[in-house]
Amino acid sequence: MKAVERWHSERLRQQLTMVRWGVVGVPVLVFATAGGDAEEIERFHLVDSLSGLLSDGRIKVYSVDSISGRSWLRGDDPQHAMWLQKQFNDALIYEVVPAIHADCGSRLPIVTAGASIGAFWAVQMLCHRPDLFQTAIGMSGSYDLSDWLQGHWSDDFYFTSPMLYLPSLDGEILNTLQRRFVLLACGSGRWEHPDSTWRMADLLGSRGIPNRVDQWGREWDHDWPTWRAMLPQYVDELT
Question: Residue 156 is inside which H or E element, if any?
Fold first, then answer.
């Protein structure tokens, strides 16, 4: 069962689309790749790969437009892209999460997942609000977007970039994060950059945040067939 919801986001100053697949189960928010929209994961058969879990009522899958990712991909002015990253972060917390809770009829903790820049958002959401999210699944992730900025960034960017703010994070947010879990997976084939995954894992581990890295073999590229194999395996394990 598929449902599409659209609304104008004052935070983003544009329309935001959220799509849901499934009827009951643990909510899983799957982030699109950099240029993707809310239905990208359906077109590339990632939803099909989860069909068994969906039909068994284990999970409900949600996805939204990659508003921030598109900005970076277009090469927008960095100040605008950093501002939009913060606004997208806030729209997820204050618009998308309440919409998921309303659809589920309860405040169930949400699992996040994504590939490439979608993996960045999966980890960011868990690190930013571990009270709302329980597990993150990052696949073939690009976790450090600061390469776009040559060392010059705003507070908007800093406070939405786990590689930057996690080293100094403390207090209740860190305490809660230390009771969550991050699964980081990547291939070793074409277009993959496992170093990014290992750097993210090292940082999480240094802060006492439980995590695991699964590095798949050389036959697994930075591409949809890899993510279609990975995601159902990890969602089945972690929900």
Answer: helix 155-158
